[in-house]
User: Fold this.
Amino acid sequence: MSKKITISVVALLVAVVFAFPTYWMVATALKPSQLLLSSGYDLVPTAVTGRHFADAVAKPNFLTYVRNSLVVTLGAVLCALVAGLLAAVPLARLRFRGRRGFLLLLLVAQMAPFEALLIPMYLMMRDLDLLNRLPSLVLVYFATTLPFTAWTLRGFILGLPADLEEAAMVDGCGRWGAFRRVTLPLLGPGLVATSVFGFITAWNEFLYALVFMQDENRFTLPVWLSSFQSVFGTDWGGTMAASTLFTVPVLIFFLVVQRNLVSGMTAGAVKG
Amino acid sequence: MTATENPPIVTPVPARPAVARRHRRPGVAALPYLLLAPATLTLLVLLGWPVLSVLLTSFRRLDLRELVQGKVVWVGLDNYRAVLGDPTFWTVTLRTLAFTAACVIATVVGGLAVAVLMRHVGRAVRTVLQVSLVLAWAMPFLAATTVFQWMFDQNYGILDKTLVRLGLTSFAGHSWFTTGFSTLAVIVTLITWQGIPFVAFTLFAGMLGVPAEQYEAAAIDGASGWQTFRAVTWPAVRPLVTLVTFLSLLWDFKVFPQVWAMREGGPDGGSTTLAVLQYVKGIAGSHFGVAAAVAVLMILVLVGLTAQNLRLMLRAQEYR
Assistant:
């Protein structure tokens, strides 16, 4: 019995370690400035203020950064969903020559080290006159999330019984009608899960955003946050408030897909 | 053995979906290729071409002048000679390998430990643990990096304050970013902290698949906790451990955001990894050819590190 208690205590300590940085971020964001730059030791804020959040939002261009991040992220996710779904259907349902080759392409693409392709991507975007413009990031994030999206959606489609679609076709639906009325609605959770993972990848991306975007009003949130020292000075309250605002959307999405967290991340790697 | 004992079992073999058979008209045969066209085209242009291009660029001299004039100057292996002849490159490569090893080992061992912990605690404690793991997992890299910078801050950071409280007064005003080693240690901590949740959840899911009878049998046989782990848990999760090790290798070797945002590869290049080197040479220094050579070498090292897994994975996945 005492062993059980020891294990529980250890587990709770581990939980504290893992939750602490998130807690500290929010606690710092809520503390008045004079408490932050002091030698005092207060793990729980003794006073609370919303000033830092107001400051962060009021920073020049803040809303522009949010908008930029949303545009590139949603643009990439939408493209990846459409192209990924179109590719997933034949790969899951149809037999045709070269199918295995396409699967292999997806699998390899999924493991491609995009970070090592920075230079050719930069040169390509320069040639296309897309540097310093948001579509360049949409394209790169589209390519990064597409293999995963297609592969995972294929897995979801494989999980749906083909008989359903066939039954609909027997009942007079066309191929497209059967897909739209039967498969697509059942695919809802899969579409949500994959788009959330795509969203998180693109929302997080830093290297390409740092390199491609030169004007300040084209920055995305990660690039802006990385320059916080010039923006905020030693204003840790403002920095933590900005970080909190940047984290919240991801946290919400993580909660949305919590059931699929593991299966989604390993979908391509464990089994088809 | 009589015939009645073993009636022939007729298994319906749905080798091919019936839907595929129905369409033999021309035009429909093109359907799969039409559907695959957007994805294939995207991957060829935005992945295939860059892979080819990075290789070609690594054999060119491409500095700002050539870039602006649009000149193509082939220099053979000059870039590779320059990179491989530079002692900094070797330092950075060894540093990157050590850094990757530290991240991967800490993440996998830590993740395994947390997974075992999850299996042994009650439902309520497990939920608390899982929620806090998700908090760590979900935090965007850049937000996490800024929080770590704040926690490790020299003057007002909570870590130094806590250490002083615990009696380690020498940590008053201690700076964690004066040496490359110490800076990298902070980054390894950060990456491990963010990486453990995924590993822990994956391995925990694997442990749930072990039939309870096996644990009961082990308990009846009087096996100790360690023996049970060795005989029951470990064989069940070993393939998953291989998998998460492979994935962590893939992610940690080329990680850029946390390393760059923490101290931009400093102090004095002391926390520069290969990903940072590529950025510094190529984008900051405008030596695109040299940076391309660094990128190619990076890919080669990565393929070398993961060759075993890549082979196994391709073999397992191909046929389905």
Residues 84-318 of chain B form a domain with the MetI-like fold fold (CATH 1.10.3720.10). The first strand of chain B starts at residue 60 and ends at 61. Residues 278 and 295 of chain B are 6 Å apart (CA to CA). Residues 1-21 of chain B have pLDDT under 50 and may be disordered.
